[in-house]
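[Discussion] Sanity-checking designs against the backbone

I'm trying to build intuition for which residues belong where. Below is a structure token string of 489 positions. I'd appreciate it if someone posts a full sequence so I can compare it with mine line by line.
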């Protein structure tokens, strides 16, 4: 995954290197020295807690943070009040996400008073908002380190500064074109992993803060992505999730452009990788080439998350989505013709400024025509800093709530019918865990992303086995294992 380096061989008497990632390994070595001094003084290793808010991009970033902390000797704990170093990787897509972070900081205030050696760090999208940083500086002096999304690769350097200082360390970049490879990562699961293929977003949907806090699109070099996935495969990973704010526009910023479809074809050839997922896909950039690759692929999962947001062409225009209702439905027809068994999921916003009853009926019409396996439905809320927040004709909350309830009922009814069509089939399942509620069962995921619970034990975790889908319970199945030679052990 990264260049293994013996931190004990880093000469700390020299000046830090200027090139990356060597510079970050230098500061990891400095942090390791701090950890050893802490351990000698306290008779125990320091504990760290990484708490993640938001999307899978944030989850992947947190794995990188955790990987560096583990490399320098911190022991992970899930209990914030027992940690010596706490880092919140924040989300700011919705303002209530900000409030959750403030709530955590409020709970930690008395804890830190009792444990003044505790260090608290904030990073991620929320930190890219200047007013947020000012609020933290003024009202949450317990915070020791603040950095954003563009310089996450500098974590070791910033951590070193934080551990050696009694002052709040703040390092926020407005934007960047830099991607630093070959830094440690700590996977949550040994058998599957997220893989960033690109960062940032150029779409500027009128309701979305992401382009302002994640920056412009920048793609990783194909060989860097392939190298990472080959290493993952050699480590026992069988499923990868390719991550980007809009994976369909992958490669456009490279000196030698490479389409996302071409990248998928190269990943398909990597031995050991059995499943390929990706998200998020913007409808305006989903090409015929990509659909053709999905049609012939043996490894790309039969699931596509394709956010529609609204079924009204007029509202889509106000959202700056750059496709019409008709274009979206035509795209769905192409996908279903090429991949008949594909599972489609989506995002829908209810109550966008100016949404009329007719506009909402258009959304219901799309739901009925597409028949999604599931949908993430959201009530529109103003997001400060986005064009939509200042739009006229904000829809009354009581009207929005009624529409939301109608949409949810429609989605759930259709989803139950769509998911039930697989009853009686035998399908391959990647076993992910022992069931939380019944230790005699294991929980796995189908290629179409549905969950299934069936009898088994922890020895199956990480394996792909064939399971008969006996009973549909709406959004998951109960099943029983079957045996044949096609199972991957």
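Best answer:
Here's mine. Compare freely.
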């Amino acid at each position: 995954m990264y260049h293994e380096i013996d931190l004990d061989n880093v000469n700390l008497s020299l000046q830090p290197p200027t090139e990356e990632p060597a510079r970050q390994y230098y500061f990891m070595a400095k942090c390791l020295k701090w950890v050893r001094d802490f351990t000698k003084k306290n008779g125990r290793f320091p504990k760290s807690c990484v708490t993640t808010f938001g999307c899978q991009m944030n989850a992947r970033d947190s794995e990188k943070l955790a990987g560096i902390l583990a490399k320098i000797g911190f022991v992970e704990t899930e209990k914030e009040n027992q940690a010596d170093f706490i880092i919140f990787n924040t989300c700011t897509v919705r303002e209530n996400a900000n409030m959750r972070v403030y709530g955590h900081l409020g709970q930690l205030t008395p804890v830190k008073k009792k444990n003044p050696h505790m260090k608290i760090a904030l990073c991620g999208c929320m930190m890219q908002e200047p007013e947020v940083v000012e609020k933290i500086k003024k009202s949450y002096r317990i915070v020791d380190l603040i950095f954003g999304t563009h310089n996450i690769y500098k974590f070791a350097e910033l951590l070193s500064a934080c551990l050696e200082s009694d002052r709040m360390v703040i390092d926020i970049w407005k934007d960047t074109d830099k991607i630093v490879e070959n830094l440690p990562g700590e996977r949550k699961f040994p058998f599957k992993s997220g893989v960033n293929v690109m960062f940032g977003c150029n779409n500027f949907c009128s309701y979305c803060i992401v382009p302002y806090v994640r920056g412009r699109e920048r793609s990783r070099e194909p060989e860097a992505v392939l190298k990472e996935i080959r290493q993952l495969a050699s480590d026992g990973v069988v499923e990868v999730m390719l991550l980007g704010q809009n994976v369909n526009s992958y490669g456009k910023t490279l000196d030698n452009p490479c389409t996302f479809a071409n990248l998928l074809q190269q990943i398909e050839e990597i031995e050991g990788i059995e499943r390929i997922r990706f998200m998020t896909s913007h409808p305006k950039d989903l090409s015929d080439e990509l659909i053709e690759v999905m049609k012939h692929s043996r490894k790309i999962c039969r699931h596509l998350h394709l956010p529609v947001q609204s079924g009204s062409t007029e509202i889509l225009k106000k959202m700056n989505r750059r496709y019409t209702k008709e274009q979206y439905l035509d795209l769905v027809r192409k996908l279903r013709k090429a991949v008949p068994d594909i599972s489609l999921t989506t995002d829908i916003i209810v109550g966008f400024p100016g949404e009329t009853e007719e506009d909402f009926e258009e959304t219901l019409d799309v739901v009925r025509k597409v028949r999604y396996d599931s949908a993430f439905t959201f009530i529109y809320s103003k997001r400060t800093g986005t064009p939509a927040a200042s739009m006229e004709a904000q829809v009354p909350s009581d009207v929005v709530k009624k529409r939301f309830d109608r949409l949810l009922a429609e989605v759930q009814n259709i989803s139950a019918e769509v998911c039930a069509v697989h009853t009686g089939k035998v399908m391959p399942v990647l076993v992910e865990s022992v069931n939380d509620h019944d230790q005699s069962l294991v929980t796995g995921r189908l290629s179409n992303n549905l969950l299934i619970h069936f009898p088994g034990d922890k020895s199956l975790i990480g394996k792909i086995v064939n399971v008969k889908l006996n009973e549909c319970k709406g959004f998951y199945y109960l099943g029983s294992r079957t045996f044949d030679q096609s199972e991957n052990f």
